[in-house]
């Protein structure tokens, strides 16, 4: 049942905690299943990947059938309408422009001791992009993953995408080509993550794996972390809408359903200060569900994980929002800035009545791969920095080594590491 809460009710805390801690993904054995798949992929390479792909995605590919060739891409891309291609370009240009502003500055200076210090940002050599494809195709996620990687300067971009029943999504291929993906493989789930992390006969391993996915993908990313880097665990979608009663209930209902339709494990929450308005939104949800093609998924998500919370004032809404730490937050209010400044935890904030979350999913520019499951408390959306790392730079000359070296020699002695001390001392008081 959809949660219906009022902060004035006696058991509000208990109910709200139940909402926060409810397990949304119905997959109790995911970790063990994923572990077995990863071990198998590491051991048997392509053979295992092909077997799992054929089983989970209902396919019949041969051992050498994992790669999607340039010719296959051509055939698929030719099916894309001009209108869809134009929309993809609008999205791509806007995402590129926003992410270009994230390119970080290097640091290089000489301190008062005469030591040159700094760092240089370098892109990772190879990145694996997981593009989800189990229940819906996500051309927009291709752009959101691939563009920051290219902007960062990644040499080799490898994309994996499941193609259930062997069906390739033409717009996914168009998005991959538009954003400069170098290699594409038809595979999903844990087997795809394992192939990217460990490499197989067909796929060379990558350095980092990014992108959202279902519980199997999330568990696999967690398990391969260390062998490769990962961006974050971006799981089932979430939206929190904070709205007053001046919004058309039908608009807010559509916003809540926009994320509910992703997945039965998605979560949509409305916080408002008017109980009658909450009921009006609920009715509007029912009306929309009568016509939406993905109503079965959206209504299960809304029934199982949705919530309507009535607060006394907006300060209560701020406090609850920080506890929810939603992936997406809409502030459908007259003065969204006032509330936004007080909020600490949200993956992306959509300000005002004319900024539906879906605009950020496609064309606004900032990334739509965002922290879910309350991880917005400590992490941010995907961006150029996920594909880069800082190499520190340190340069002494003879005088500056003479200035700071003796302290290093002392500390090395204290730590009982004589070779450390020697390697500094041996250079001290030398004419340059
Ligand atoms: N946070 C974001 O930015 C973002 C963006 C897009 C999608 N999403 C989320 O990504 C998810 C996509 O999930 P999806 O399922 O559609 O696609 P998916 O590509 O993540 O998963 C499909 C794969 O799951 C594996 N799988 C399915 N059942 C299995 C089983 N019983 N055992 C082992 N493996 C199994 C299969 O290998 C299959 O190829 C949704 O939850 C959606 O909300 C998030
Ligand atoms: N809302 C999703 C992230 O939670 C991203 C997406 C892709 N396509 C549509 N929506
Ligand atoms: Zn979405």
Automatic annotation (TrEMBL):
PANTHER family: HISTIDINE BIOSYNTHESIS TRIFUNCTIONAL PROTEIN, HISTIDINOL DEHYDROGENASE HDH. It comes from the Bacteria. GO terms for biological process: L-histidine biosynthetic process. Zn(2+) binds at residues 259, 262, 361, 420. This is Histidinol dehydrogenase. The gene is hisD. The active site is at residues 327-328. Keywords: Amino-acid biosynthesis, Histidine biosynthesis, Metal-binding, NAD, Oxidoreductase, Zinc. Pathway: Amino-acid biosynthesis; L-histidine biosynthesis; L-histidine from 5-phospho-alpha-D-ribose 1-diphosphate: step 9/9. NAD(+) binds at residues 130, 191, 214. GO terms for cellular component: cytosol. Belongs to the histidinol dehydrogenase family. Its EC number is 1.1.1.23. It is an enzyme of class 1 (oxidoreductase). Binds 1 zinc ion per subunit. GO terms for molecular function: histidinol dehydrogenase activity; NAD binding; zinc ion binding. The lineage of its organism: Bacteria, Pseudomonadati, Pseudomonadota, Alphaproteobacteria, Rhodospirillales. It comes from Candidatus Terasakiella magnetica.
């Amino acid at each position: 049942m959809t949660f219906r809460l009022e902060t004035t009710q006696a058991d509000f805390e208990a109910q709200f905690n139940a909402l926060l801690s409810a397990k949304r993904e119905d997959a109790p054995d995911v970790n063990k299943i994923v572990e077995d798949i990863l071990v198998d992929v590491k051991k048997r390479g392509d053979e295992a990947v092909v077997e799992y792909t054929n089983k989970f995605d209902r396919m019949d590919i041969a051992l050498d059938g994992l790669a999607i060739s340039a010719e296959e891409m051509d055939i698929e891309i030719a099916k894309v309408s001009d209108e869809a291609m134009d929309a993809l370009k609008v999205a791509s240009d806007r995402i590129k422009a926003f992410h270009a502003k994230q390119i970080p500055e290097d640091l290089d200076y000489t301190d008062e001791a005469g030591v040159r210090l700094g760092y240089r940002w370098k892109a990772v050599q190879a990145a694996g992009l997981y593009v989800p494809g189990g229940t819906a195709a996500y051309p927009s996620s291709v752009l959101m993953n691939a563009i920051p990687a290219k902007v960062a300067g990644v040499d080799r971009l490898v994309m994996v995408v499941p193609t259930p029943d062997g069906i390739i999504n033409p717009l996914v291929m168009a998005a991959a080509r538009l954003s400069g993906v170098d290699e594409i493989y038809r595979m999903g789930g844990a087997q795809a993550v394992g192939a990217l992390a460990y490499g197989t006969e067909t796929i060379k391993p990558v350095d980092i794996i990014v992108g959202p996915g279902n519980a199997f993908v999330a568990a696999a990313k967690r398990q391969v972390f260390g062998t490769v880097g990962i961006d974050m665990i971006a799981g089932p979608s979430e939206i929190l809408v904070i709205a007053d009663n001046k919004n058309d209930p039908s608009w807010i209902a559509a916003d809540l359903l926009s994320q509910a339709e992703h997945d039965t494990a998605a979560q949509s929450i409305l916080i408002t200060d008017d109980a009658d308005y909450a009921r009006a939104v609920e009715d509007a949800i029912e009306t929309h569900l009568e016509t939406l093609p993905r109503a079965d998924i959206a209504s299960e998500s809304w029934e199982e994980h949705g919530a309507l919370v009535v607060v006394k004032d907006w300060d209560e809404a701020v406090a609850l929002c920080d506890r929810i730490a939603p992936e997406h937050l809409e502030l459908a209010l007259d003065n969204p800035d006032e509330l936004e400044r007080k909020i600490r935890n949200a993956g992306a904030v959509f300000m005002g009545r004319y900024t539906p979350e879906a605009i950020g999913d496609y064309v606004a520019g900032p990334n739509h791969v965002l922290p879910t499951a309350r991880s917005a408390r400590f992490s941010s959306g995907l961006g150029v920095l996920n594909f880069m790392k800082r190499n520190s730079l340190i340069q002494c000359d003879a005088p500056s080594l003479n200035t700071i070296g003796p302290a290093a020699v002392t500390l090395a002695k204290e730590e009982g590491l004589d070779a450390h001390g020697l390697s500094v001392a041996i250079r001290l008081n030398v004419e340059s």
